[in-house]
Design brief:
alpha/beta, Ubiquitin-like (UB roll), Nucleotidyltransferase, domain 5, 3 domains, six-stranded mixed β-sheet, 15 helices, 34% helix, binds FE2/S2 (inorganic) cluster
Amino acid sequence: MSERIMITVQTGNAGEEIYLLHDVKKTVLETLRESEIALPSLCSGMGTCGRCKVKFLGYAPFPTQTERGKIAPDKLREGYRLSCMAKPIKNCTIQALFAEEEKIKVLTESSIGRESSEPERYYEGLETGSSVIAADIGTTTIAMRLLDVSTGEVSDTYTCLNPQRSYGMDVVERIRAGSDGYAVQLQRLVQEAILKGMEHFIQTAHAKPKLMVIACNTAMGHLFMGYPTDTLGKSPFRPVNIGLTEFSFNGVRTVLMPGISAFVGGDIVAGLYACELYDSVKPWLFLDLGTNAEMVIGTGGRFLCTAAAAGPAFEGKGEGNTTGPERIGAIAHLLEAGLADETGLLKEPYFEAGIDADGIFVTQKDIRDIQMAKAAVRAGIHFLLKKSGISGYEPIERVYLAGGFGFYLDKEAAVRIGLIPSELQGKLEVVGNTSLTGAGLAGRKILIDMTTEKRNLEDIIKNCEVFNLAVQQDFDKKYIEYLNF
Ligand code: FES
């Protein structure tokens, strides 16, 4: 048995200290994870993102080469280390540093309000004063709403960061963590977050929820339910179960929205449902751009879907602790000012040091990350149109931009960097958190008639066809073509 020491963790919450037994062969991050202290990690503990910093008070282990490359010398002397690298060998005290990540905004708003557009009589018979919970489990954030079942009014909201983020920031890393033996911890973390939301509603709104509907991407759904994630992470990317699933959670009847494939999940089904896009005859595009960029084109009741791993460029924090929409605004500004060229190269002397653009600090790496993410999205749009037999952007009637990234995005900047084709600029409609809205809407309707609603949701899925973007012939060519601004 290897030697164990005691790590005292100061969490920053009103003098709170947590005492952890630590195996000296492990890294601090491993011990923190086992204790479900969720430090952010963009690189899954590879030592490249620099997000998992802790500060040792007093004794600090000798810094590794990787840490010396990531942390300034004066900070190293002050005791800062990467928790994914640090292996202390004697009792020590650390400060967990998650303050910056907590600043990520969680979007609960949506411009789609189908609840209130339903005829009142439709909901007659539902018990006045009782409630339904809608939950949107995103890879980065979790948003919950408490709705009055008879009026559809939102009586309370609850948001938090997804505590699983210490196991990686994107879907691919979470799937890997699930397959690497952390499935139980990941499930416990997300279930506890949802429980906290439920408790919040029960305490503050004295709610007695009749039903909870959860919408999320397929990986988040698998981790919540405790399904193995192995098959999600490798070709042919088969989910264990993506059908509508009903169960009891914390004593509340709960429904998990059905999904379409391993990479197009129940959050997108909820979005299409909220926007009523299944009724639309003219072609439209639905884009939900986060760490996983999901894209759907609809023509005459048929849907074609694909997804691209966009990495943290759109949702996560950049090197200068900036958000995706902020970085896109800043890059558009740099392009206009001639400080970055069309290939994305920053002019000297900013290549090494980065540059402040209108108060947003941008590094060369930030630009490269955005370029790769936008190239994947544009290639996705290209193949959606091509496979639908639509030539050019003219026939597209509307582009629905869902999710937090789309909500805060400056449309002109998005067009300037080439994320959105200029021909579509006037057709953009920002629709917000449609996953949450769709879950709430489905919840109220399920309470009236589960059989009909289940069929309605399954009809959407039946009319969906998914294709794997990365294996399309010419994908690489298109991707490279769209890398330039
Ligand atoms: S540097 Fe990324 S998790 Fe440690």
